[in-house]
Amino acid sequence: MAAPTFDVTLPGRLGDPAMELRTDPRADPRMVAALAPLGLAGRAAELPVSRRSPLDELLAVALAAEHAFDQSFATLLADVPRASGVEMRTLSITGVDGNDIELYVHRPIGVAGPLPGLLHLHGGGMAILKAVDESAALWRGHLAAQGALVVGVEFRNSGGALGPHPFPAGLDDCAAALDWMHGQREGLGVTSIVVTGESGGGNLSLATALKAKREGRIDHLDGVYAQVPFIFGRYDEPDPALPSLVENEGYVLSPSIMTLMATLYDPSGQHAADPLAWPYFASEEDLRGLPPHVVTTDEIDPLRDEGLAYLRALQRAGVDATGHTFNGMGHAGEMLMGAAVPELFARALRDVADFARRVS
């Protein structure tokens, strides 16, 4: 039997199904060197669960994944110092279900005058990780050092230590935090409110804006800055319209870990095309009239094309929307590898803060 042939002119696993992040010629060598000791430079392992697995098995695997990701992120960021000249306080508000929502408010010390405001929603596929984790706290601190007031939200997860609370619990908590921040504009001294987050937090940032528009609260925010958003949901059924799911398959994120998170967020699947759960499916009418957006992506990220698709949909709907792609980077590499790619880490921080100033 003849060996299968592939079009080697195509990028990543589209041209060579055996390609791994560490062998992809597009990969930034500094990123590969940082990921290799953690076993993340090869093809991500598939999990022993699927969308049809019992819920208790899915939750157990998610809890283990949360621990593994938290450790990996801490290692990747170990040589990035915490921001200096920043203070943080914690407060609690009440969510729509009577639940407590912890908020972490960071601001530069001794800076007079109003500041741009950022509502930060952390990554983790809406299923795992916490706002109190070192990786999220470090990012918020560095954003505040850029001259912004930053509020981190400890929203309910659909799995992990803060779960299980499927959709719309986490989104409701983010919306409640936005409403609180809007009501406190004068007391906080903010000139704008931009909702921002990465990966699952990118989903929640986009969905928070969509929800605010749907409910007549769009004046509560002035912009959205979504980084590498996780917004498609059907990761066990790749769509030909999103070739990066195949091109970069297994680069840090496996289809099974993405499917795990998506399944926990919407266990019944009844929200599979609901743009508040999966913004990829937003219509032009959903998008029309939204405030300015930035959507950033990474070149060798499985999620790249869903972020680009959302950006283009915003532009078609007449929204002031821009974006850029970090070449050579895997999923959220510019945020998670500040020591390995310091100029990209600094650029990502600066861009978020500058956008918040622009929409003030």
TrEMBL record:
InterPro entries assigned: AB_hydrolase_3, AB_hydrolase_fold, GDXG_lipolytic_enzyme
SUPFAM superfamilies in UniProt: alpha/beta-Hydrolases (SSF53474)
Domain Alpha/beta hydrolase fold-3: 118-332
Signal sequence residues: none
Entry keyword set: Hydrolase
GO molecular function, a single term: hydrolase activity
PANTHER family for the chain: AB HYDROLASE SUPERFAMILY PROTEIN C4A8.06C, ALPHA_BETA HYDROLASE FOLD-3 DOMAIN-CONTAINING PROTEIN-RELATED
Name under which the protein is recorded: Esterase
Source organism phylogeny: Bacteria, Bacillati, Actinomycetota, Actinomycetes, Mycobacteriales
